[in-house]
Each structure stands twice: as structure tokens, then as C-alpha cells.
TrEMBL record:
Protein name: Bifunctional ligase/repressor BirA
One of the record's GO molecular function terms: biotin--[biotin carboxyl-carrier protein] ligase activity
GO biological process, one term: protein lipoylation
Whole-protein coverage range: 82 to 327 of 327
Reaction(s) this enzyme catalyzes, per UniProt: biotin + L-lysyl-[protein] + ATP = N(6)-biotinyl-L-lysyl-[protein] + AMP + diphosphate + H(+)
Organism: Sporosarcina ureilytica
Length: 246
């Protein structure tokens, strides 16, 4: 990954640019990276705060041989890869909150936005949008994020080299995508579960049209989160937001 890198001082969203490049036929592993995003976007149409020079704001175009139903697995591949990269560069080990938030001390340090270009039965490309809070100090977050977000610098107490972290992230993204393509989801699932803070906890999952509560008991071969409800039935959460319950 990263043979082809498009670098921007400032842009609306690396995700928009990556979509255009993917449509024009960009190769597997093409990277779009920006110092600043003016309209960075998160999951569920939320804004993503993307201050200049403070974080890693990048989108990676991948072309895995998967069906659209398997797409959630790529999100989990990315979550594991970025966790490993942060661990290698900083010595800090983030925890993964399903499906793809990386937390340190229960605060969000990284978000991943997975978007598809696909026909009904064939994925053309998966755009992995990766936002890593690297060198913000606490007062550089908008007020509403101060209690829920953190950066690697805040947690480590020193500035981190973003270029090194980008290179290491791309290395692990490529390595784990290959592992996944060669050996299926099982090895990724094991890694994901070992970094997860979600399994074994009581969860409320909010989906588009329903809310379900239960004990998180694992993830399925498709990458869905399995909840055991109080009446014993198992519910698979395909996508949505979760919160921890007492
Ligand atoms: C989330 O947790 O809601 C996902 C956040 C994803 C943010 C990244 S930053 C690079 C890429 N471009 C965007 O506009 N969003 C993603």
C-alpha cells in the first residue's frame, strides 16, 4: 500500500477525493492524505474534527475480492492494523470498541469510516477513511469532544512523528489484508477479540430502526457483534452504535 500517494495541504474530505479516484480506476492501496480537512466526516453523517497538522486524515482505496456482505470484516481488519501500528510507534495499546473505534483510557483516539463502491454482488472498492488524533493538546479539541476524545500526544506526553505512523499503518494494513485474503477471517477475528474492550460487557446497540440490549459474547465470521439478550436469544448487530451498560 502507498505506492501511489496523493497529498493535500487542505481539502474538503480525503474520502470524497478517494471516491473519485476509485471511480477513475485507482489501484489497490492508493492513499489520499491531507494536513487539514474542511468538512471531515465521521460515521452516521457526523462531522470529524480535522485540524491542520494535528492528526492523520487519510483514505485508503482497497480492492479486496469480497462480497458486499463481507465488507464489515474489512473494517475490523483496519481496526486491528491501526491498533498494531499505534502500538509499534508509541508503545500504547488502544482498545477496540465495536465496530471500529480505537480508545485509550476509554477516550476515542481513532475513527474508521468504511465506504463501498459495489454492484449488488461484487465489491469494486472499499474506501477506508482513517482519522487518528495524534498531536492535539486537550484544549485543541472542540468543547463537546474534550471529555470523550484524546490524542496520542495527550496519552504519551510527547509529540509523535506522523509520517512514521502513516508508514507503519500502511505496512500493517497491507500485511493484515494479505493475511485475511490468504487465511480468511479467523486470524483477524482472534486479533480483534484480543484488542477488544467490548466482548463480555453489557451493551445497548442502537440501529436505524431498533434498540437491543444484551451481553456482547463475540463477533461472527461476518464481523457482526453477537449479543445475548436476557431471554437467551442471540442477536447479531450488523452496523450501528453501541454504548456500555452497567
Ligand atoms: C468515525 O469514527 O466516525 C469515523 C471517522 C473517520 C474520519 C476520517 S479522516 C479521513 C477520512 N476523511 C473523512 O472525511 N473522514 C475520514
Amino acid at each position: 500500500f502507498g505506492q501511489e500517494i496523493r497529498y493535500f495541504e487542505s481539502c474538503d474530505s480525503t474520502q470524497f477525493i478517494a471516491h473519485e479516484l476509485a471511480q477513475e480506476g485507482a489501484q489497490d492501496g492508493t492513499v489520499v492524505v491531507a494536513e487539514e480537512q474542511l468538512t471531515g466526516k465521521g460515521r452516521m453523517a457526523r462531522p470529524w474534527d480535522s485540524k491542520a497538522y494535528k492528526g492523520i486524515w487519510m483514505s485508503v482505496i482497497t480492492r479486496p475480492h469480497l462480497t458486499p456482505q463481507q465488507a464489515p470484516q474489512m473494517t475490523l481488519v483496519a481496526a486491528v492494523a491501526i491498533t498494531r501500528a499505534i502500538e509499534e510507534v508509541t508503545g500504547l495499546t488502544p482498545q477496540i470498541k465495536w465496530p471500529n473505534d480505537l480508545l485509550i483510557n476509554e477516550k476515542k483516539v481513532t475513527g474508521i469510516l468504511t465506504e463501498l463502491q459495489a454492484d449488488p454482488d461484487l465489491i469494486k472498492s472499499i474506501i477506508l477513511g482513517i482519522g487518528i488524533n495524534v498531536n492535539q493538546s486537550i484544549d485543541e479539541f472542540p468543547e463537546e469532544l474534550m471529555s470523550i476524545a484524546t490524542s496520542l500526544k495527550i496519552e504519551l506526553g510527547k509529540t509523535i512523528n506522523r509520517a512514521e505512523l502513516i508508514a507503519t499503518t500502511l505496512k500493517y494494513l497491507e500485511e493484515y489484508t494479505k493475511l485475511y485474503e490468504a487465511h480468511g477471517f479467523s486470524p483477524i477475528k482472534l486479533l480483534w477479540e484480543s484488542y477488544s474492550n467490548t466482548i463480555g460487557r453489557r451493551i445497548r446497540a442502537t440501529m436505524v430502526n431498533q434498540t437491543v440490549e444484551g451481553l456482547a459474547i463475540g463477533i461472527t465470521e461476518e464481523g457482526m457483534l453477537e449479543l445475548k439478550q436476557d431471554d437467551g436469544t442471540i442477536f447479531g448487530v450488523y452496523s450501528g452504535d453501541i454504548e456500555f451498560r452497567k
